[in-house]
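Allow me, if you will, to draw on your knowledge of protein folds for a short while. A protein sequence and the structure tokens that stand for its backbone fold form the material at issue. I would ask you to consider whether the tokens describe a fold that such a sequence might reasonably adopt. Thank you for your consideration; the sequence and its tokens are set out here:
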Amino acid sequence: MADFEFLRNLPSLKRLWLKTNATLENVDFVEDLVSLERLELYYLAKITRIPNLDNHKRLRQVVAFDCNRLTDISSVKGLPKGVHVAASGKALKKGFVTKGLTFNPD
């Protein structure tokens, strides 16, 4: 499936798990899913950034695993202390750390 825009209509969704999609170019629709507690992105070959998560007050975990074009995860800096963040991919720079968050480069 290439288009997940229909998910914008599910604002009470608590967990989003997307895996192995070579055509999805962004996950901007996540910005409208403000009830998310877990955002899990695995092997999404074309995404380059994590969208704005400032309004996601219930978020406890953000995982972006082996998203090889992912270069911008700056949106996680605004998340509350205690949110677990793990990201890996060929394009990410090693050693990204921000206060209160954990980051595990590949």
In short: The longest strand covers residues 15-21. Residues 5-87 form a domain with the Leucine-rich repeat, LRR (right-handed beta-alpha superhelix) fold (CATH 3.80.10.10). The two ends are 27 Å apart (CA to CA).
